[in-house]
Amino acid sequence: xxxxxxxxxxxxxxxxxxxxxxxxxxxxxxxxxxxxxxxxxxxxxxxxxxxxxxxxxxxxxxxxxxxxxxxxxxxxxxxxxxxxxxxxxxxxxxxxxxxxxxxxxxxxxxxxxxxxxxx
Length: 119
Hints:
The protein has 5 helices and 5 strands; from the N terminus they run E-H-E-H-E-H-E-H-E-H. By secondary structure, it is α/β, with parallel strands linked by helices.
């Protein structure tokens, strides 16, 4: 499984990437939507884990751009803002059922990654 983590908190995504690699999951990370799009041009991913609020391009807008590149890409959203209910309402627009609240529990993230990829 290969995933792309996108969050403007570099320490968060670099640490998650390292911790996932210890669990046998290949991961790349980006801190901007533009950087994520560049990586998606060069590498195929199974799942993109996107922060809802990243500068310039929101996580929901980035999802649409990444889907244009790879319609089979799966998504998990991260949010540290608002309540779970607010997030469910907002993410319903994007048809996204997978989301996690920050701070991210690594075991829960891995569980969702396996669930979404059926592995």
